[in-house]
Amino acid sequence: MLSVRDLTVSLGPATAPVDIVAGVSFELAKGEILGLVGESGCGKSMTSLAVMGLLPQPGPQIRAGRVLLEGSDVTQLQPWQRVEAGHGRMAMIFQEPMTSLNPVRRIGDQIAEAVRVHDRVSDAPATARARELLELVRMPDPAMQLSAYPHQLSGGQRQRIMIAIALACRPQVLIADEPTTALDVTIQVQVLGLLRELCNRLDMAMLFITHDMGVIAQLADRVSVMYAGRIVETADVAALFGRPRHHYTRGLMDCMPSRNFGARRLPTIAGQPPAPGTVGAGCVFASRCPAVREPCRTADPPRAEVSRGHEVLCAFPLDDGGPR
Amino acid sequence: MNGNAVLDINDLKVSFKVRRAGRKYQVRAVDGVSLSLAEGEVLGIVGESGCGKTTVGRSIVGLVRPDSGSISFKGRDVTGAGLRDMRLNIRMVFQDPYASLNPRRAIGDSVAEAGDINGFFTSRAGRSAAIAAALTAVGLDPSFAARYPYELSGGQRQRAGIARTILPSPSIVIADEPVSALDVSVQAQVLNLMMDLREQLGLSMLFISHDLGVIGRISNRVAVMYMGRIVEQAATRTVLDDPRHPYTRSLVAAIPKPDPSRRILGAIETGEPPSLFKRPSGCAYAPRCPLASDRCLVDVPELRSVDDRALACHNV
After folding, report:
1. Which domains does chain B have, with CATH numbers?
2. Residue A324 pLDDT class (50, 70, 90 cuts)
3. Which ranges carry the ABC transporter domain (chain B) (predicted)?
């Protein structure tokens, strides 16, 4: 469905590029939910914007790599060119629904606008479809809500509207960038449940970006962990949580406050991620890795498949993970 | 008041005037909250956005003026009192380390500001030494005193914010979502730091957060707030392991557990969040509550003592 190969996104002049996404590859199958997890600045949002063709201009550029949607490379196409070429069936939702919605337009009009662009229909059928979409995202009283303004809705409802707009193009791939981070936990659980139900019902694939390992565990089929612009580990969700192989993944799990309430202190990962442009030779995690060895500091780590479908970017992966 | 309480809040009510669509509303953010904080204790206040938890914290440090109720510090009524002498004793850590430090002041000057205003320092050398000691206590090199906020990472800024808080040796720290803006790996470092400081300096702490995971880690007791009222209050383990109020139950159940074999999506019902403009006449939680009965729609449940906890519910 979606295949991203060696995607590299860089800032700065072509003569001295700073890679903020460095050789990211992943595959997304029909109906699958891939979680992309990492801390701020790791390049997960830049990856999603590059895949969508929404990198801010002027700004970061795709320096290398390909984004294949059903086999055709869309890397060099603008979003409107994608729609015209029939590759428009990819949509994105963002963290803060209030800043993505137009505050002075009724939500029915905002959904119908997306329908008109993609289906090239007139107002009446577009509005009818907008109402269907509101039902699809389980808005109560869809007919009434068409005439509501964004400020009259709660945060969770606004995110449902964003999802409805995204679904207007009948996407095969939905990219969701931290869509529940601004929501309360009781509402987050509803929106996550809705997204998963929609993926099942519409056979839609989803790339779900988050910093929250708990959300990943609840939602994703497969997980890629990103650090300093690289994917350092990819595995099925059960394998990743059951037996993490990269030291960074393990560290991220250990420092979650909701794990092991009993322990007195939280385990931490010492230090901080490297700033873009300061990455030298060797493994990007070497300076913080608890199991660092001499070769890590000089040689790039190999990408190895440690078991079927479980890839790790590490010269000395954890093998004592065991059942946790 | 309790024997060893450093802070006692009694029936605190705070409301705000809000204008919406040309109409004026009186929004009651805090609707009769009573709390007491024992010496050396960490009391967590948890609840969703808009529940009034931040307003409770801000009332204590005098950033908002309560309508009624009282706040006393070590037995002395300080409700709306002269803030100056309280400022060094009750101090606040804010959520956003990017917004809470003046970008044009060196870190050292920000850390020393409250001391400067209140005549805390007797000499320049003493001031420098106090800044260095505060920075060292939070794990920053004293050379950070000369740096500016833009040179610091989020975690370092929050450490600087904590240094500013502890410099005048306060008795009470009000921490309002102090780790919410930080990445998980940095969040763990800052939480550990706060636990260490609490022990070393004998601080009492009011820890406000929407994250039960974080609250569960740092606090001894937890108060759960919903629409301006406390609905359940007990020892942390009691609240997390055996929540009784239907709202607390839903809050605990909705935490995304980092365990793919225990999936909850689609399995729990949490209802729509309330509007502060349309406060229900009975129990504020009744419209979302699976246990709501006729009585809940008319009668506001009082917080009463049940077994090992305080609980405000007619039906449990």
Report:
1. 5-83+209-311 (3.40.50.300)
2. very low
3. 7-252
